Amino acid sequence: MMLFRPESAAYAGVPLPASAAMTRPRSSLVHPADTRWYHCVSRCVRRACLCGIDYSSGRNFDHRRSWVTDRLHELSGLFAIDIAAYAVMSNHYHLVVHLAPERAAAWSDRDVLLRWTRLFAGPPLVRHYLSGEEPALCPPELDQLREWVATFRQRLQDLSWFLRLLNESISRRANAEDQCRGRFWEGRFKSQALLDGPALISAMIYVDLNPVRAGMAATLEASSHTSILARLRELEGAAQEPLLMPFDASGRLPSAIPFALDDYIRLADWRGRQQHPDKRGTISGPLLPVLHRLGLDEQTFVAMSGELMKKFGNAIGAPATIAEHCARHELRYLRGVGTGLRAAEDGQAEGGEWERSKCADNG
Question: Which domains does the chain have, with CATH numbers?
Answer without folding.
Answer: 6-104+157-361 (3.30.70.1290), 108-155 (no CATH)
